[in-house]
UniProtKB/TrEMBL annotation:
It comes from Alkalimonas amylolytica. This is N-acyl amino acid synthase, PEP-CTERM/exosortase system-associated.
């Protein structure tokens, strides 16, 4: 099956080096500035989209092995920095009225107990499916992709969310994850068994968005059998990437 061969075509890493982080920020610039126009390009001196939350985030990066092209990225915004100081989350700045605070309260969560899924971005060319003669044009160069490679493109987003979920599962300090997403994205995430639950009202923020929350106790049990080997592979990769030194030092700025 293509899903079980995903890592034959792509690699997943925690972006640590300056080069890896440039790839993360460049994908975001392409998607959020060039393509969607959500961010003002004039605010960035280089084609790298960054914000105040990147300094206390973990960034996952997916790269196409054969071409070396950066394909997708996602971040987990943590509620604390490398010194243990509490930090704010994007939703608290942009979508706070939409979040139902009673859900957080009823779960017994305190400020700092939950993180946020944010800045999930996939380079446009890797959102395309099979095209005529299996060619996708990138930077005026034609890259030949096999049918299996092209079919694996649809699993890039799932891999990114699995990576975020794998970190969440292993964390001793994060007890919930929130996200501000398009409601229709839930159908895509429900397919492998990632069940975010509504946590607030609809809001107009770069289109219709809604707060969602992911509960740790249902995370592992809800993964569909078809996707279990894929999720287990991602968990192992995340475990290898998130060494104890990384978790403590959080060299992520």
């Amino acid at each position: 099956m293509v899903i079980n061969n995903f890592f034959d075509y792509f690699e997943l890493v925690l972006a640590r080096t300056p080069a890896q982080k440039r790839d993360v920020y460049h994908i975001r610039y392409q998607v959020y500035c060039d393509e969607l126009g959500f961010e003002d390009k004039s605010q960035f001196k280089q084609p790298l989209e960054r914000d105040r939350f990147d300094g206390h985030s973990l960034h996952f990066l997916i790269r196409h092995r054969r071409t070396g092209l950066a394909a997708g990225t996602a971040r987990c915004v943590l509620p604390f920095d490398e010194f243990g100081h509490k930090q704010s989350l994007p939703s608290e700045h942009f979508c706070q009225p939409a979040l139902d605070s009673s859900i957080i309260t009823n779960l017994g969560l305190r400020r700092g107990d939950y993180a946020e899924v944010s800045r999930v971005a996939i380079r446009a060319e890797f959102r395309r499916r099979i095209t005529l003669d299996h060619q996708v044009y990138l930077d005026h160069q034609a890259y030949q992709f096999t049918s299996d490679e092209l079919q694996s493109f649809s699993h890039i987003a799932i891999c990114l969310y699995f990576a975020l979920a794998a970190y969440y599962q292993q964390s001793q300090t994060i007890h919930a994850m929130i996200a501000i997403m398009e409601p229709r994205l839930m159908k895509h995430l429900n397919r492998p068994g990632i069940h975010f639950q509504p946590a607030g009202q609809l809001i107009d923020y770069h289109g219709v968005r809604q707060p969602f929350i992911l509960y740790k106790d249902s995370l592992v049990s809800d993964i569909k059998p078809l996707f279990r080997p894929f999720f287990d592979s991602v968990c192992q990769l995340v475990t290898d990437e998130l060494t104890q030194e990384t978790l403590l030092a959080l060299d992520i700025a």
